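Sequence in, structure out.
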Amino acid sequence: MSGAAWALLLVLSVLWGATFFFWKVLVAYAPPFTVVFGRVGVAALVLLLVLVLRGEGLPWTRAAWLRFFVMAALNNAIPFALIAYGETAIASGLASILNATTPVFTVLVAHVLTEDEKLTPLKLLGVGLGFIGVVALVWPDLLPGVLSANLFGELACLLAAVTYAFAGVYGRRFSGLSALTAATGQLVAATLLMLPFVLWVDRPWQLPMPPASFWLSLVTTAVLCTAAAYIVYFRLLAIAGATNLLLVTFLLPVSALLLGVLFLHETITPAALTGMALIGGGLAAIDGRLLPRPTRNIQL
């Protein structure tokens, strides 16, 4: 990737790394569907306002909105809800490490669904290391007689990573739209997808009024970690490709872990460090910079 692409990747990693911290704050006061609806709803309003100020609009064709709704389900509604649920049981840092497996699943999805992002021996090595890292992370909760909320939270975050992998590949269909238009349409669609779940399942009007810290966290994660981040996301997708883009998950656990330790008093366990190291090694292999180019370009 170019230097500009790497700079955007670093910015995105900080924004999305902070998201795991804010998820933990938000789910302490509201159920997952309500938290997700608030995040995507506020972000959609912000981006719609930006579109209006720029004198632009959303496409209104049936095909365009079908793409928006599919991308919203894969990239927002489903993974956001799974991560929010996962963080009701596990630490924000652990959730971010599990989310770092997204490129591992992405190379498998891209190999099956694309013609130009096939598996190479090095990527296959990365997939293997990634899966060993996952085992190291969840092994304490897989021991005989252990079936806890922690395990379900971990599995939810892993399933979110799988969903993100499909989103990264499907997002190539947005190459004809600007980053702002694609992000806005996706978030509007995600808001509409989440609304029935909020009304029928959570019924937030029956919940106690959250404190100021909830609203501050919600606005911050909506405006910076969602609205601004998705503009960067679609720009990176266009210039770097699905697999390179999702390397952001290699970097975001750093900020997520730091915020969790400093402000949520979370601890980093040896299993978490081992799993992160193995997943990091796998992502480095997937990135393809461990060996000279002729070696890493061999396809299976």
